[in-house]
Every structure is written in structure tokens, then in C-alpha cells.
Design brief:
This protein is α/β, with parallel strands linked by helices. The chain has 6 helices and 5 strands, in the order E-H-E-E-E-H-H-H-E-H-H.
Length: 201
């Protein structure tokens, strides 16, 4: 009997997040009761811009860093970060092979406003899983549990930590200018490889 695997909910998760998901066996749990940790993929994603790696950060309302459960963290709209993120995605991927193919799927996430970060991330997760044709079911956690298992990805998939899963290389739009960049969002792979994305995760 395989143990459950616990995943956090990220904003435009990195490629190796979906590699881990694809390789998981047994029950998949999505963490919605953890305290919000700063400087993680929960509210940031990395893309390959014309000038190299670019971090897109979803701002959250003040107080989120004070041991607040992630399900209660609200997105801040003090400035129009959605417009900035969408323009950055367009600038970075307009010339990629499949951006226009997926553009209409992602555009609403930069037009509609969500109150809570967890809801925004979960709807993005659902969309990307569908686009990748990942056939699995998942269950939101009912409480925060401390588990000692290699199947807990809440702290291991982190911008400052090395890749746990080897990633295959693929063509990136600005690779001739910046070289191949690792640990990018799944959208970098999706916009460059389209339906072949599954072969790289």
C-alpha cells in the first residue's frame, strides 16, 4: 500500500513539481492548512524572459507572514500586478511555438480577481493539470500534519533548494541569449513544447 503524497499549492508551479506529481502513487493530498511561508513558490513563479530568469510574485495582504494559515491569506491588489504578470508572460512567450494555443486558457487569471491565494492557486493547478492531461484525483487536507516521509513535498520543492528530480532539457525561446535555465514554471515548458510537455516531466 503506497503512502499518501502531500503537495503544497503553488502559483504556476515549477516543472519538477509536476514531475513529482506524475511519479506519485497512492493518494495525493493538497495542503491547505499550513502556515504561509514567505519566499516560496506559493506566491511566486520563475519564467525565462528576454533578459534571463524573471520572478513573478503575487502580492499578499499584510499580516500573511505572521503564522497565518495559507487558506486565509488574501491577495493584495494595491497595484495592478496582474497586468504586469500578463505583459511579462506575453513578452517572454509571444514568439514561442504554443503561447497562442494556450493564451485564452490563462488570460482569465489576469483579468478576474480572486480574494484568496489558495483559491487562485487551486484553479490554476486544475487548469494546468487538465492541459497536461494528468489523470489523477486529489484531496485537500483537513488539518496540518507533521509527517516523516520522503513523500512530503511541502518543504522540499523550494526556490533555494536543489532539484530533487532530474529534469530533461528542452528548447527555450531565449536559450541562445541566456543559456538553458532550470527550475522554471511549468508554463515555460508548456508554451515551448505544447502537447509534448508530458514527455519532459
Amino acid at each position: 500500500m503506497h503512502k499518501a503524497t502531500i503537495f503544497p499549492l503553488f502559483y504556476l508551479p515549477p516543472i519538477h513539481y509536476f514531475t513529482a506529481l506524475k511519479q506519485s502513487q497512492g493518494e495525493i493530498l493538497l495542503e491547505i492548512h499550513e502556515h504561509f511561508p514567505k519566499q516560496t513558490y506559493r506566491n511566486r513563479a520563475s519564467i525565462h524572459s528576454p533578459n534571463g530568469k524573471l520572478d513573478l510574485i503575487v502580492p499578499v495582504e499584510r499580516g500573511a507572514e505572521v503564522h497565518r494559515p495559507i487558506k486565509d491569506v488574501r491577495i493584495s491588489y494595491e497595484f495592478n500586478w496582474q497586468r504586469i504578470h500578463w505583459l511579462s508572460l506575453q513578452t517572454s512567450y509571444r514568439s514561442s511555438a504554443f503561447f497562442e494555443f494556450y493564451e485564452d486558457d490563462f488570460a482569465p487569471f489576469y483579468e478576474k480577481k480572486w480574494d484568496f491565494l489558495i483559491d487562485y492557486n487551486q484553479e490554476l493547478f486544475t487548469l494546468i493539470s487538465r492541459l497536461l492531461k494528468l489523470d489523477f484525483s486529489y484531496t485537500p487536507t483537513t488539518e496540518y500534519k507533521i509527517v516523516a516521509t520522503e513523500l512530503d513535498f511541502r518543504k522540499t520543492i523550494h526556490p533555494k533548494k536543489n532539484l530533487l528530480i532530474s529534469a530533461s532539457t528542452y528548447y527555450q525561446v531565449f536559450e541562445d541569449r541566456n543559456g538553458f535555465i532550470e527550475k522554471l514554471s511549468i508554463v515555460d515548458l508548456l508554451f515551448n513544447q505544447g502537447p509534448h510537455t508530458r514527455n519532459h516531466i
